[in-house]
Amino acid sequence: MKVSVVWSHVCEDEVKVADICDELLAVGCKDGWLYLFDEDGVLWTEKLSVTFYRDPYTDVQITALDVNEKYLAVGTNFMDGKLYLFSKEGDLIWKQQFMTVASIGERPEDVTSVSIGDKYVGAGAGWIDEFAYIYNIDGNRVLERAVEGAVRGMVLRENHIAFGTERRLYIVRPVNRKFNISVKELMFLRDGFVISEERGLFMLSDSCDELFRVIMRKPEICVDEKRGIIAAADEDILQVVSPDGEVLWRKEMPTRPLSIFAEDEIYLGFQGRVIVLSEDRRREIKLDGEPICIGRLGVAVKKGKSISLMELP
Fold first, then answer.
1. How far apart are CA 238 and CA 65, in angstroms?
2. Cβ of 105: how many Cβ atoms within 10 Å?
3. Distance separating alpha carbons of residues 96 and 135, to the nearest angstrom
4. CB–CB of 51/78 below 8 Å?
5. pLDDT tens, 131-176?
6. Which of 269, 278, 279 is nearest to 301 (CA)?
7. What pLDDT sits at residue 53?
8. Do the strands 71-76 and 82-87 form a parallel or antiparallel pair, or are they unpaired?
9. Higher-pLDDT residue of 88, 50
């Protein structure tokens, strides 16, 4: 099956990270280059620069991105150690510096995760110790908490706040609980927290009761809030699960996917191809590169310095 290339763009340096939403694609490259695209191509670019170190240390790495229809959140490594919030139009709304001061001196923290919620923007960062930070859209800090392990994901809803690390799961709202779980991914679906961890996929209610558990090996997960389903894939199997834990259907997998997107069908990205699955149908699309992320906008494919947007099959 063939799909059309919507556009291609050669960036200033190697593509490292990307995030996609319904209308926008954000791309972070080596040496601090930041891009925002829509369906027509590049909207704007920004070059983030080292502010703490001096030459020859100039290589800022963009380590985390999250984009929605209004904002773009960006995290950088210890060469800069900041959380940036940009508008869709490319205006810098605010930035926050994360710094650790210790007996051996001070150093910017590595930002490991960023997230944009309904009213909040969050980041996980650390050097010697790890922290979760949450700000309102105006840039005022509303929470700072020391955590165990690097932050891997956040849920930032008005009445539901949680963050998962490589060693713990922290529920902040609506109840205050901590679980000894190595979180791989953390998402939200219909008033419940969806968690991927070493032993599989499970879901917690508002009151932190376990609603169901599906045994898998560190699955890649995606939720479709419209249909109320969860897609989970490891190296052996894809399972589509309802919020009450019923496995609606499953398919064998050739290997672990690099990216996953769930809507009317399940889109799974592998090196050089995308496989599209439904309960009774399978399609495969060949690609020249790596499908770094998939969303309603399309399939973002990276190859060195190049980023392309393919139509969603």
1. 26
2. 7
3. 10
4. no
5. 999 999 999 999 999 999 999 999 999 899 999 999 999 999 999 9
6. 269
7. 67
8. antiparallel
9. 88
